[in-house]
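Private note to self, pasted from the team thread so I don't lose it. Backbone tokens:
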């Protein structure tokens, strides 16, 4: 299967390669509303799992890549239909299948077939298809990267399991290997890296930024992931995210 067989999404323009890495992404949830409003004039990538929140705040993020996310095909279609009925402005649908109770077994056991179905849903609603499968699931099925990428407009690469290595060459090499597999299936796909604030240590903007610096030239953007909001206090996590956003965006000035 080659990228040329995939019909382009109606709203999609591929990110030029010289612009790699500069943009930031963040999930829209109760804890991040103020941060996203603060940086609303610095467009990036925002993902939301709740149509109600998206309805309220996506209009303030015009110019961003605004995405509704779901872990199953049924919930993906339900959110797309609900957003259509409520007139929510957004650009993409994110399918985050993984080996958990939120994704039906038959979906993660047929990665390419499930991606084809997600693609059909995205095209039906005139949206980008953003893939964000679990890293462990993909590491067990690396042969599926190219076919899944050929069906997708964007890919969010979850790098948490690669963050067992410190920022630097080993982490970079492991990320680059996966990025090359993804782009082998679709050279024009936008690939974002999700760098996670992990639960086993204090959240550190310095460490997150060091991971970003290791791979920034390989990616179309980097997404700030939070493994859990329970491991550290919300105020500490919010302050860390704010520092990441401020530092990264100041670099672009």
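Design output:
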């Amino acid at each position: 299967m080659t990228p040329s067989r995939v019909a382009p999404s109606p709203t999609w323009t591929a990110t030029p390669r010289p612009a790699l890495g500069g943009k930031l992404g963040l999930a829209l949830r109760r804890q991040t509303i103020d941060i996203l409003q603060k940086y609303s004039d610095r467009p990036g990538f925002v993902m939301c799992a709740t149509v109600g929140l998206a309805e309220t705040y996506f209009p303030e993020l015009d110019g961003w890549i605004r995405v509704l996310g779901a872990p199953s095909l049924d919930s993906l279609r339900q959110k797309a239909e609900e957003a259509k009925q409520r007139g929510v402005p957004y650009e993409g649908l994110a399918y985050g299948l993984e080996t958990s109770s939120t994704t039906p077994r038959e979906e993660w056991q047929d990665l390419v077939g499930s991606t084809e179905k997600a693609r059909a849903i995205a095209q039906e609603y005139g949206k980008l298809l953003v893939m964000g499968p679990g890293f462990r699931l993909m590491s067990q099925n690396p042969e599926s990267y190219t076919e899944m990428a050929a069906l997708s407009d964007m890919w969010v690469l979850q790098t948490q399991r690669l963050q067992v290595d410190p920022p630097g060459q080993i982490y970079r090499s492991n990320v680059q290997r996966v990025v090359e597999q993804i782009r082998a299936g679709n050279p024009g796909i936008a690939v974002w890296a999700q760098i996670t604030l992990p639960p086993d240590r204090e959240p550190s903007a310095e460490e997150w930024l060091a991971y970003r610096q290791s791979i920034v030239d390989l990616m179309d953007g980097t997404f700030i992931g939070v493994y859990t909001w329970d491991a550290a206090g919300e105020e500490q996590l919010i302050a860390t995210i704010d520092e990441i956003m401020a530092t990264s965006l100041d670099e672009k000035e």
